[in-house]
């Protein structure tokens, strides 16, 4: 490609397997897998008799469902996990790991943890790679200059089968932050501030590059917190150009090339070129002066609802736009807050320090410095510290951080997602208010009726010891001259020595990749091309939904994600809105889908923007589809949700002309039918009058109209994938020899001996 390119352009270009003019097939270097979004993907592989193309580029763990209680008595997930559905997801993952011969860190392994923590920790995530996972916070890995994004379960299946993804180039967006951060301000505050500025749809359709002197000064941990939340700003991915701080971090990581080896030298040479060329074009540019960033907290139910800790709860009266005003009123009601209350006056009940945003060693050190020698406030019922991985836990214990937290009254837990979304037993009770270092404050996110305030680890620690949202800068003993929390507090070198030592028991040998021929028992072109019923014309009554920023937690809350099937989720659709609180599915007659004729609607029109934001859960389109909705018309959609609908034979239609949306909503309110004609790309009234034409990507239309499964289509191009892989081996050899799958060198794949160390024999092998 001629002309100056952005970092994103460069990584994208280097992974193009082929472009047929309609879409781009991109090679995926690294695939992380967890128990929630993978069962249906493995089931799909099985049904089509497909194998995993690159087990050596795939790394799996359990994180969302796992209890964070002591693992002293841990033997197997079947005996350890009490909750039946959670247990089934974890055992299903383990069965799939065995069957498809993948690398897995289970609960008896110190390397287990949140996928987005363990990938970087192991050096599985490397600069310039493409990284995917069935999880929206895959954006975290962009901190290394990787192109990393969340995908739905159908795409997980596609990557498992083909090691590629069909995609379209996103727009380039840049958020530049310059200058030194003020004392007490961390990278978490910077990203909350940035999302407050751009909104949760601000990055839709974009990959954000974070740059500027502030960003360059950050440690890798601080960078990861920022890229992690790029998805909360609507972007598919966040990226930061790799530099010496990145290379230092990677030294000694088990899966990174060995330092000083020719591979390391070649890799660093390549990595150094991964920066935006001067003059490269950005579609959107945002500038932030670090002086404007204060310790920041959220007040509402969307990550854009943020304010400086010195500020007040907003007053809906100050907003003219009726939709905005209603949104604020609704959020305040849910959060139990009065307008104009000073943020510092808000009392809390619980503290959660953890999640893939802020559970790394540096976060724990920073929080520990605040609580050291202090006690949890009397009104705080519970405070949990949940390290992001077993290795972080160990490291923190070696530094005595666990003692500091325990003495202050915080619980020191085992690694996992925990109360970030409460798929395990760690949840808020209704109306409980939590100071949380996580990334989402959606309604019901941490437990039905629970109230979340997002903030940095030091702010959460301060809230714990004061009992209310507190300004870290006013805390007794706060030392404004101390190194800011986002600077490494110990020498980088000593961290690496520790990493290497901690990992020495584990097998980190390199492996040769299997050749293309060995990989596909069923052959390249043999894949099924029959996916779902063709979508051509859809006619019926439209259901109107007058909401903005409908997140996928609202479309289907976490308690329904514990299924290993795609079907039967219709009952869960819009659970919190559709059913009366504290009842067993007693319908709320006010909710549109409980009213006639809308309960039979196949089409939904949403009048507010950004439908489907948040999590990558494909359960959201599955629930809509199971309810009967095949087409959604809205001003705009979040990227991952948009993709996921197509993969299920559904049609999302973005229409940015609000008057057209209102016209369709009016027809809906009057129980009129409309006709969505995909073939001619038209929406018509029941009398055949064209309301509007609409755009749809040609490739997606082709798949929908013909009911095609794109895995089968991609497999027809296997020769191109094999060609890409051999070029990759030559140019980026460090991407091959980094798997745990040394067994590949010894011959064909055998279904046995996945490295799952048993409890009490950490580092040992478990023969299944
Ligand atoms: C379960 C998973 C699909 C989800 C995500 O995609 O983000 C979860 O990690 C979350 O944070 O809501
Ligand atoms: S956001 Fe929360 S639930 Fe999702 S991966 Fe991160 S820690 Fe887990």
Automatic annotation (TrEMBL):
Pfam families per record: Aconitase, Aconitase_C
Cofactor: [4Fe-4S] cluster
Pathway it works in: Amino-acid biosynthesis; L-leucine biosynthesis; L-leucine from 3-methyl-2-oxobutanoate: step 2/4
Catalytic activity field: (2R,3S)-3-isopropylmalate = (2S)-2-isopropylmalate
One MF term in the entry's GO annotations: 3-isopropylmalate dehydratase activity
GO biological process assignments: L-leucine biosynthetic process
Enzyme Commission number(s) from the entry: 4.2.1.33
Domain Aconitase A/isopropylmalate dehydratase small subunit swivel: 534-657
Root EC class: lyase
Domain Aconitase/3-isopropylmalate dehydratase large subunit alpha/beta/alpha: 9-467
Keywords from the named record: 4Fe-4S, Amino-acid biosynthesis, Branched-chain amino acid biosynthesis, Iron, Iron-sulfur, Leucine biosynthesis, Lyase, Metal-binding
Coiled coil: none
GO CC annotations on file: 3-isopropylmalate dehydratase complex
Region annotated Disordered, chain positions: 479-526
Family, as annotated: Belongs to the aconitase/IPM isomerase family.
NCBIfam families in UniProt: leuC, leuD, PRK01641.1, PRK05478.1, PRK12466.1
Chain's role: Catalyzes the isomerization between 2-isopropylmalate and 3-isopropylmalate, via the formation of 2-isopropylmaleate.
Protein name stated in the entry: 3-isopropylmalate dehydratase
Organism: Orbilia javanica
Lineage, top ranks: Eukaryota, Fungi, Dikarya, Ascomycota, Pezizomycotina
């Amino acid at each position: 490609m001629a002309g100056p390119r952005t970092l994103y352009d460069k990584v994208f270009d280097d992974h193009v397997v082929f472009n047929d003019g309609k879409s781009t097939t991109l090679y995926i270097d690294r695939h992380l897998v967890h128990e929630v979004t993978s069962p249906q993907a493995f089931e799909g592989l099985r049904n089509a008799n497909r194998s995993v193309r690159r087990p050596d580029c795939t790394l799996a763990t359990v994180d969302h469902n796992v209890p964070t209680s002591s693992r002293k008595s841990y033997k197997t997930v079947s005996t350890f996990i009490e909750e039946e559905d959670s247990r089934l997801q974890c055992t299903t993952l383990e069965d799939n790991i065995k069957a498809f011969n993948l690398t897995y860190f289970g609960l008896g392994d110190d390397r287990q943890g949140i996928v987005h923590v363990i990938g970087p920790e192991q050096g599985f995530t490397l600069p310039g790679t493409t990284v995917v996972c069935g999880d929206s916070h895959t954006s975290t890995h962009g901190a290394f200059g990787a192109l990393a994004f969340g995908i739905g379960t159908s795409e997980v299946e596609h990557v498992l089968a083909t090691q590629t993804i069909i995609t379209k180039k996103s727009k380039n967006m840049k958020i530049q932050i310059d200058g030194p951060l003020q004392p007490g301000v961390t990278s978490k505050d910077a990203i909350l501030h940035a999302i407050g500025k751009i909104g949760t749809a601000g990055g839709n359709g974009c990959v954000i590059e974070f740059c500027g002197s502030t960003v360059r000064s950050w440690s890798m941990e601080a960078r990861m917190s920022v890229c992690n939340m790029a998805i909360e700003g609507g972007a598919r991915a966040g990226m930061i150009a790799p530099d010496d701080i990145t290379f230092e971090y990677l030294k000694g990581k088990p899966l990174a090339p060995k330092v000083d080896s020719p591979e390391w030298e070649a890799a660093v040479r390549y990595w150094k070129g991964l920066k935006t060329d001067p003059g490269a074009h950005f579609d959107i540019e945002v500038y932030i002066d670090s002086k404007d960033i204060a310790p920041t907290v959220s007040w509402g139910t969307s990550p854009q609802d943020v304010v400086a800790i010195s500020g007040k709860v907003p007053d809906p009266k100050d907003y003219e736009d009726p939709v905005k005003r209603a949104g604020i009123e609704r959020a305040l009601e849910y959060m139990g807050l009065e307008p104009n209350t000073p943020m510092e006056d808000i009392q809390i009940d619980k503290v959660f320090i953890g999640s893939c945003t802020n559970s790394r060693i540096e976060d724990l050190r920073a929080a520990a410095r605040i609580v050291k020698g202090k006690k949890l406030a009397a009104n705080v019922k519970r405070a949990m510290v949940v390290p992001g991985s077993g290795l972080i836990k160990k490291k923190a214990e070696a530094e005595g951080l666990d003692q500091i937290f325990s003495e202050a009254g915080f619980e020191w837990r085992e690694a996992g997602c925990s109360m970030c979304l409460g798929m395990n037993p760690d949840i808020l009770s209704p109306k409980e208010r939590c100071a949380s270092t996580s990334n989402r404050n959606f309604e019901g996110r941490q437990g039905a009726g629970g109230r979340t305030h997002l903030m940095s680890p030091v702010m959460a620690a301060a809230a714990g010891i004061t009992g209310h949202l507190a300004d870290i800068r006013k805390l007794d003993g706060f030392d404004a001259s101390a190194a800011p929390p986002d600077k490494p507090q110990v020498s980088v070198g000593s961290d690496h020595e520790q990493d290497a030592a901690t990992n020495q028991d584990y097998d980190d040998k390199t492996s040769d990749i299997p050749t293309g021929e060995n990989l596909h028992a069923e052959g390249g072109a043999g894949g099924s091309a029959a996916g779902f019923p063709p979508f051509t014309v859809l006619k019926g009554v439209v259901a109107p939904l007058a909401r903005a920023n409908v997140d996928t937690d609202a479309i289907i809350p976490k308690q329904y994600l514990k299924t290993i099937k795609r079907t039967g989720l219709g009952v869960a659709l819009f659970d919190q809105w559709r059913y009366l609180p504290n009842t067993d599915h007693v319908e709320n007659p006010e909710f549109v889908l409980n009213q006639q004729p809308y309960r039979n609607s196949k089409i939904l029109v949403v009048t507010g923007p950004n439908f489907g934001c948040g999590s990558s859960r494909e359960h959201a389109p599955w629930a809509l589809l199971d309810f009967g909705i095949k087409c959604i018309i809205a001003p705009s959609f979040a990227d991952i949700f948009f993709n996921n609908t197509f993969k299920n034979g559904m049609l999302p239609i973005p229409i940015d002309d609000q008057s057209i949306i209102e016209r369709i909503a009016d027809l809906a309110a009057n129980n009129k039918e409309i006709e969505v004609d995909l073939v001619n790309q038209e929406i018509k009234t029941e009398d055949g009058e064209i309301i509007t034409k609409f755009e749809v990507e040609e490739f997606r239309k082709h798949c929908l109209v013909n009911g095609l499964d794109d895995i089968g289509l991609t497999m027809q191009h296997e020769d191109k994938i094999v060609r890409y892989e051999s070029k990759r081996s030559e140019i980026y050899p460090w991407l091959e020899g980094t798997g745990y799958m040394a067994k590949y060198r010894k011959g064909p794949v055998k279904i046995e001996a996945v490295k799952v160390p048993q409890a009490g024999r950490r580092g040992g092998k478990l023969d299944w």
